[in-house]
Amino acid sequence: MFRLQGSKVLAVDMTGDAVKAKNGSMVAYDGEVTFKKLSGGGEGIRGMVTRRITGEQMTVMEVKGHGTCWFADRASEINLVGLQGDKLYVESSNFLAADAGLRTGTSFTGTRGASQGNGLFTTTVEGHGQAAIMSDGPAVVLRVSAQYPLTVDPGAYVAHQGNLRQTFQSGVTFRTLFGEGGGEAFQIRFEGDGLVYVQPSERNTIAGDV
């Protein structure tokens, strides 16, 4: 159903089924398809309320019918993720599309929002199917194991999946370590067994230079 055309365009072939995608990300389509804007990024009223509380702005649309749709967003690199009943955690700005059968929602991720200023929740995608996530530059997939925990700069973090514990360490980033950062800073530490997706370009955060 999901396939890449180059590294920056997602093609979705539909035969009467549906896909959820970031609002405004469709660049072309053929066949007979319909479009419906979905409120918030979560399931039902609870998802809408959570989005309103956290202030996250992820508006998705449902595309349904017979044909092919092409999606892209600001020439971002696109990565396909296959889910087999597990859960994917992804920054809302990095979400592009998911099978309509996958459940989307939000998850509490700790004290990050107090430092970063953009909410205490991250977007979740769960179930069996495919999802597409975006990154600023080609994403790198890093393995986390019990022997090898991973520490990530929050500006480079895109998503993670697997049996991972996520904690936040305040007071330092990779830049402030060398005297090049400012403001309140922190790192994200992952322990357990799973995968972490990082991008080679750091997004701006309210916390300062991270």
What would you say this structure looks like, in words?
This is AIM24 family protein. The protein has 2 helices and 12 strands, in the order βββαββββαβββββ. By secondary structure, it is mainly beta. Strands 1, 2, 3, 4, 5, 6, 7, 8, 9, 10, 11 and 12 form a 12-stranded antiparallel β-sheet that branches. The radius of gyration is 17 Å and the shape is elongated. Residues 45-55, 111-119 and 205-210 have low confidence and may be disordered.
Using brief descriptors, characterize the structure shown.
210 residues, twelve-stranded antiparallel β-sheet, 2 helices, elongated, disordered C terminus, AIM24 family protein, AIM24
Structural class: mainly beta
Give me the strand/helix succession: EEEHEEEEHEEEEE
Q: Write down how many β-strands occur, each being a DSSP E stretch of 2 or more residues.
A: 12
Number of helices: 2
> Share of helix among residues?
under 10%
**Low-confidence runs:** 45-55, 111-119, 205-210
The largest pleated sheet is described as: 12 strands, antiparallel
What average pLDDT do the residues reach?
81
Protein name: AIM24 family protein
InterPro entries: AIM24, AIM24_sf, Trp_RNA-bd_attenuator-like_dom
Organism: Streptomyces lancefieldiae
